[in-house]
Design brief:
Radius of gyration: 23 Å
Strand content: 25-35%
Helix content: 10-25%
Bound molecules: guanosine-5'-diphosphate
Structural class: alpha/beta
Number of strands: 19
Distance between the termini: 23 Å
Largest sheet: 6 strands, mixed
Strand order of the largest sheet: 13-12-11-14-18-17
Length: 342
């Protein structure tokens, strides 16, 4: 279910062969024409080569075949955080992204308030998703945990559950649900950014990987990031290359490279994370414990909702499938069906 990668390039007339003289780096922040690119050494505020942002609308039919009729700005930003890009360095604030290298793995999308119902991909080339919840304060919302696990399944991301604030104690019901997660193959880590417990194990899990931290506000994501990345600068300022005035402080997702390789992304606005556009009928494959039962029903398009002889519902009644997990399935399925109708 992984999204396919893409590569976009633009070669200016009379330019050197592709890639020559360009500096390669990682997009760590920014959107919509202004980005913060981190090469192996230093940092660059970058604009983007105009043609990468534009879609050429060509005439069709006799006579006009192939001729460019109109130029439109692409609906979706061709550059996302996590992209590796090649940059033409031309001086302070005037560097430009010339080429976007192919994306490698999973992506997370966030709804863009300016783009109507469309999805905006904000983080790409991710390896894993770390779902952060607090043991207490705020009480963990297990429906949100299931939503994040589905997102990870959709994108073929390794999902890790991180329970922070363990110094505050753990409710038996939470422990039961987390044992269930472990039984399904999702690693569960126990941390306290207050006491430092579990941080070393978390660091080991993140080494060499590009990981997104997601979870409700107040669970301690920033505190964990501070423990893992004591040098991080929360405000990644990107200079406007168009005006050379003012600093544009990014408010979206940001990527923080790790000293030994890999990077961590934080994901403000996580509530708006969109389940990628999947067919509601494909949702059952994102619930690992359903797998044994899929295809056993006599009903060919079984949605595991009200169909007679549904093997998933029988497993629910016998206790083999957890009632809370099944409720999450129903809720997410309803949400996806609603999106289709909207
Ligand atoms: P975020 O909104 O997820 O980024 O959460 P913050 O890092 O801002 O933390 C929210 C609150 O929880 C702050 O008051 C922190 O001091 C507190 N906090 C963070 N980690 C821990 C922890 O491990 N234990 C306890 N008891 N409090 C914590």
């Amino acid at each position: 279910m992984k999204k396919k990668g893409h590569s976009t390039s633009f070669q200016p007339a009379g330019a050197k062969p592709e890639g020559e003289g360009l500096l390669e780096g990682l997009v760590v922040a920014g959107s919509r024409g202004m980005y913060h690119v981190q090469p192996d050494v230093g940092a660059l505020g970058c604009s983007i080569r105009g043609r990468l942002r534009k879609r050429l609308v060509r005439a069709t039919g006799a006579g006009g075949r192939g001729r460019v009729q109109r130029v439109r700005v692409k609906e979706h930003d061709p550059v996302a955080i996590g992209d590796r890009v090649r940059v033409l360095v031309m001086g302070a604030g005037t560097s430009s992204i010339e080429e976007v290298l192919p994306r490698t793995s999973g992506a997370l999308a966030r709804r863009d308030p300016d783009a109507g119902r469309g999805e905006l991909t904000t983080l790409v080339s991710l390896d894993q998703l770390v779902a952060v919840f607090a043991a207490r304060a705020p009480e963990p919302h297990l429906g949100l945990l299931d939503r994040l696990l589905v997102l990870a399944e959709q994108q073929d991301l390794v999902a890790i559950v991180c329970i922070n604030k363990v110094d505050l104690g753990l409710e038996p019901e939470l422990q039961r649900r987390l044992r269930l997660c472990e039984g399904l193959g999702y690693p569960v880590l126990w941390t306290s950014s207050a006491t430092g417990s579990g941080i070393t194990v978390l660091r080991e899990r993140l080494a060499g990987k590009v990981s997104a931290f997601a979870g409700p506000s107040g669970v301690g994501k920033s505190s964990l990031l501070n423990a893992l990345l004591p040098q991080r600068d929360e405000r990644t300022g990107v200079m406007s290359s168009a005006t050379q005035k003012g600093r544009h402080t990014t408010t979206g997702a940001r990527l923080f490279p790790l000293a030994g390789g890999g990077a961590i992304a934080d994901t403000p606005g996580f509530r708006a994370f969109a389940l990628a556009s999947i067919d509601p009928d494909g949702l059952d494959r994102c619930f690992r414990e359903f797998q044994t039962y899929l295809g056993q029903c006599t009903h060919t398009d079984c949605g595991q909702l009200r169909e007679p002889d549904c093997a998933v519902q029988a497993a629910l009644r016998s206790g083999a499938i957890d009632a809370g997990r099944y409720r999450s399935y129903r809720r997410l399925r309803g949400e996806l069906s609603g999106l289709l109708k909207a």
